[in-house]
Structures are given as structure tokens and as C-alpha cells.
Amino acid sequence: MPGIPIFNNSEYGQDIFMKTVLVPKEHITDYIPQRAPVVMIDTLNYCEGAITKTNFEIRKDNIFVKDGLFHEPGIIENIAQTAAVKAGYEVKKNGAEPLVGFIGAIKDLAIYKLPEIGDVIETTVIIKMEVMGITLVEGVSFCNGNKIASCEMKIFIQKPDQTNE
Predict the structure, then answer these.
(1) pTM
(2) Longest alpha-carbon distance in the chain
(3) What is the CATH architecture assignment of 5-160?
(4) What is the pLDDT, as a whole number, of residue 9?
(5) What SS3 state is found at 65?
(6) What does residue 10 show for φ and ψ, rounded to 5 degrees?
(7) Which residues of 91-110 are buried (b: 16+ CB within 10 A; e: fewer)?
């Protein structure tokens, strides 16, 4: 994705960020609204400024695995949850609960390769803009050092007073 050099895996040491764990797998659902079987991130590895990084290991019992491959809907959800965990991480600092978000639009989606069972996806999301409950993010996923997916997403955040309860 032009204009954002942080996505260059080797030049910017993506693997260095992925060895740090801010939120481990056993606590990740404290920071996102999703629950099994739809949790598509394992760890929060970096969260500073506009940049968030996560890891996710592909397991054979994942609902998006078919014929040994992790398919497109899972990759898209992984990118969205990487954005969601940043929001959850920030609000948890203030004692609040994570809000629900919805993917409103996906632009320039490119899937280069489907990861296999046992692979670990390393995903980076950069927030480009936040306005009136809409967050525009740019995301990219790597597997074994190779870019496997990238896209831009508009995510709508549901405020507590907007629920149907």
C-alpha cells in the first residue's frame, strides 16, 4: 500500500513487534466484543498511536478453515478485529467495556495467499481517520514473512445508547 512504509515487513522489522505481547490469548476477549467461534486474533502485540499489531494462529477447528486453508472471510475478520482490539485496549485503560463495531465498507481488498493450518498471521492496522463514529483503517497481513492480504476498511462503532436493548 503506497504511502505507508511501516508495511514493509523486512525493512521495518515486523517480526520484532510480533514477539512482544501486550495482551495474551487467554485475555484477548476482554478487549474485543467477539466470542468463540468468531475470535480471529490471539494476541495484541503492539498498540501505540495509530498503529496496532496482532498475531493469530490458524487452527484446524477454525470456522473459516476449509481443505486445510484459512479463507478470505477469516482474513477480513482478522483485520477488523485487529482494529477492534486497539479500541478495546484504549477504553479498558479508562475502565470501560469494548464497543461493538461493524464493517461498513471494504476497499482495495487484495488476498495474495491463503494461510494453512499451523501458520501464524501477523496483522498490522493503521488508523487513517476517525470521525463521527466511523474509523477508516488500512490493514495488511503477513504470514511467514510474506504479504497475504491488504485492504482499507470503514468501521462503524455502535455507541451504548444505540443498542436495541
Answers:
(1) 0.87
(2) 48
(3) Roll (3.10)
(4) 47
(5) strand
(6) -75, -40
(7) eeeeeeebbbbeeeeeeeee
